Amino acid sequence: MKITQQATDTSLTLSLDGELDASSSVILDTELSKPEVLDYQKILIDCQRLNYISSAGLGVFISHLQRLQDANVKLIFYNMQEKVHNVFEILGLDSLMTIVPTQAEAVAI
Questions:
Q1: H or E element: which one contains 64?
Q2: Do residues 17 and 50 touch, judged by C-beta distance below 8 A?
Q3: Staple 44 to which of 9, 13, 67, 104, CB 3.0 to 4.6 Å?
Q4: Which residue positions does the secretion signal occupy (predicted)?
Q5: Residues 42-91: pLDDT tens digits?
Q6: Considering the entire predicted model, what is its pTM?
């Protein structure tokens, strides 16, 4: 798993490349735990190259969701592959988290 970051004044984009499993979820958790994450209005998760997500990977997003919401930081997923999106749907996470098809839509929120 490779995580690339790109920041603007109001948003932080994390591009996920590879498989988000038990071992790589630790890296993502470290990134989302940083205090400066709360300085942004939006955390955008680019899932275009995310091939697989395990329960540990999902758990990282779930564990940070309330913290981000309390700080008025929006967590927005985009460019999600169908098989990854299906996992979110099956678990009902698509109703808890914002998932949009494109980067333009994610930025516009």
A1: helix 55-70
A2: yes
A3: 13
A4: none
A5: 999 999 999 999 999 999 999 999 999 999 999 999 999 999 999 999 99
A6: 0.95
* Phi (first) and psi of residue 70, to 5 degrees: -60, -30
Type of residue found at 41: Q
Which tokens in the block code for residue 88?
């979110």
Q: State the CATH number of the domain containing residue 51.
A: 3.30.750.24
Cα separation, 58 vs 6, in Å, equals: 22
| Torsion sign over Cα 54, 85, 19, 12 | negative
Q: Which residues pair with 16 in a beta bridge?
A: 3
How many domains does the chain fold into? Answer: 1
What is the domain extent for residue 20?
A: 2-108
- Strand-pair partners of 17: 2, 49
Distance CA 14, CA 32 (A): 10
